[in-house]
Amino acid sequence: MKKILIFTVAALFCAGAALADTAQTMPKGTGRVYVAPTFFFVPGIYDRLGSYNAYEDGKGRIIGGNLGFATEYGILDWCTIAFRWAPGWNFASDVDLDNSVTKSGITYTDRNEYNVNGVADMDFGIRFLIVGENAPVKNEIIRVSFAPGLKIPLPGPDFESQYASYTDNIKEYFNKAAVSVYSGQTPEDPAHGIYTVGNLDRHAFGIGGRLNADYIFSENFYIGFCTEFTRYLTTIPAKKYGFEYGGSLDGNSVDFSSKLSFEIEPVYTRILGNNVLTVGLPLTVNMAPPVVAKYDGRTMEILGEQMLFSMMPRIGCLFFAGPLPMEAELDYTLPIYGKNYAAQHGLTLLLKIYFGLPSSGN
Questions:
Q1: Which of 160, 295, 300 is nearest to 240 (CA)?
Q2: Cα–chain-centroid distance for residue 54?
Q3: What pLDDT score was predicted for residue 6?
Q4: 143-168 burial, b if ≥16 CB within 10 A, otherwise e?
Q5: Which of 104, 195, 296, 311 lies 20 to 30 Å from 220 when distance is taken between CA atoms?
C-alpha cells in the first residue's frame, strides 16, 4: 500500500483547466459560456522538501482528460454573477501503478486498472467592480473588483468499497495460493478490478473571496493581479479522503482548513480587423496549510504544507461565428516548483461563447 500512499499525495491536487482571471465584469445584459477540455499528465511529484521526484515505471505516472465549464452574466455593468466548474470532470485517466506483492515466496501479480476519474467541486460567486471605467468609483487606468463566493461540494469516489474490494482480492489470492502450494496445484490468477485511487478535489463546503486589480498601461497592455482565499467550513470522513484511507474507522475525519492563491499576469491585446488577439502569461502560486486527521479528540498531520508555483502561457483570438462573438484560447500549464504537490502539466483548449439577453426596461 505504500505505493498508493505516495501516489495519492499527488493525485489529491490533480486538476484540469485553470482559468486566468481579470478584474473586468461583463456589461449589463451580456454573458459568456466557457467550455474547457484539457489533456493533463503528471510525470512526478514535489516532495515535502521541494525536490522534484519523477515517477519510475509502476509508481504513479498519470495521463488523462478533463472537461470544465463556466458561465458569467452581467446583472449591471459593475456586477456579474459567475458559476465555475473548472476543473470539472476527469472523464478518462490512467495511472501507471504496480502494487505487486510477494509473501513467503508467493507473488501477487497486480493486474488491476487504476484511474483518477471523478468530479471537482463547484464555485458560485458575484463579482463587484469597485474601481474602473464603468464602476461606482470612476478610473480609466485602474480596475479593482471583489468577488465573494461559495465552494459547493460534489460527491467524491467511493473509496470505502473500492478499498475493501482491493484488500479482499489480495487476501483471497494469498489464501488460495497457500493451499495450492501444499496441494501441488498451480495458483489461480488473482481477481482484479478497476480502482479510482486519487481525489480530484476536497469535497468540503467552503466560503471565500477573490480580489482582482488591473493596471492599464495602454489600450493594448495591462497587468492583472488576483488573490483568492477559501476557508473550508466542514470536514470529510477520512475514508473519503483517499484510496488508502478507505478502511479508516468511523468518526475519523479530515480537516483541510483553507487554501490561498496569488496570480500576476501581463496581458497584451491587439485588434486585427474584426478579430482581437490576446496573449497572456499568468504566474500563479497556490498554497494550503497541513491536512489534519482528527479522531477521538486527537489530531495527526497526514500531509504537510502544500505549495505550487506554475505558469500558464496562453494565446487567444476573439472572432465572430455568425451573429455571436466567440473566443478560442490555447493554454499550457507548466509547473515550476512546489512542495507536497503534483507536478502536473496541462494543455487546454478554452472556448468562450458570448451572448446577450434582451433588456426588460428602457
A1: 160
A2: 20
A3: 47
A4: bbbbbebebebeebbebbebbebbee
A5: 311
